[in-house]
Amino acid sequence: MFITKDLTVPFSFYLQKKWVDKSDHNCFMLFARSLYITWVVTRTGDENVEVAKLSHVCWLDVKGKFSISELSPGIAYEIVYEVKLTNGASGWELPITLKLSLPNGEVRERQVVILEKPRKKWIELNVGNFLTKQGETGEVCFDIIEHGGHWKKGLFIKGAIIRPKMITTQ
């Protein structure tokens, strides 16, 4: 299903979604249209949300940013990209870099190999975690990077989710 611009719906509807979780903490999803995506070929509708499709690229560069002041203070947050590989996805042998840049200048990077991830299913790639502070200002930036120069294809990007860190128990 494609989303068309309805003049009765604010443009921000296509950029982000905001909600408050059961613990009364602010959460956000930045949809694909609000991200800077190099070489995005098409944007298509999937599950009533516009997603970006990277059909054939040699340079993967996805960037997002968000004002930390919009988040609840004193909370550990996580940022995840929601992505999906097609059945025909290829060229993902090299790891991708997930980069988190915080307002205090701290930069964290981690590498993930997505070649073995499930196909045709939305998965989350955790960019990183951070703690918010009362009165903190500035932007949190988050990237997916792979500049290996070889061709890759078959990746959909739905967006990035900023939410309180999920605590898992074993």
TrEMBL record:
Domain of life of the organism encoding this protein: Eukaryota
InterPro entries in the record: PP2-like, PP2-like/Lectin
Pfam families hit by this protein: PP2
GO MF annotation terms: carbohydrate binding
Protein name: Phloem protein 2
Protein's organism: Hevea brasiliensis
